[in-house]
User: What shape does this take?
Amino acid sequence: MSKRIHTVTLPEEERTFLHTYIMTGVRSARSIKRALILLDSDRNRSDPWIAEHQKVSKATVYNIRRRYCSEGLQATLHDKPRSGAPKKLTVERKHGSRRLSVQTLLRDVNAGLSGSLQIG
Assistant: This one.
């Protein structure tokens, strides 16, 4: 068996926190899975065993242990913010396009061109 580079040894307060974290409140499945992997790692379970029982890859187990050792518990449980794609419409342009749509609809209704919308 190969020697682990990142060994997880949880202090008692973090272990208690993780047990409470799993059992109470509304959490994402991803963060609960990470907590379970940390608890199994603390029990010196092997990576293949953890991966099989938690239904994740061995790389995921390794990455969670590595992140815990380098960044701490809270950083391990929660995702980092993602930049994502920039907004395509600014708020002003969004409201302006709504106004234009309403104006176009009213114009079409007044002109009798709207077949599906009936005003009675």
Remarks:
- Residues 56 and 101 are 48 Å apart (CA to CA).
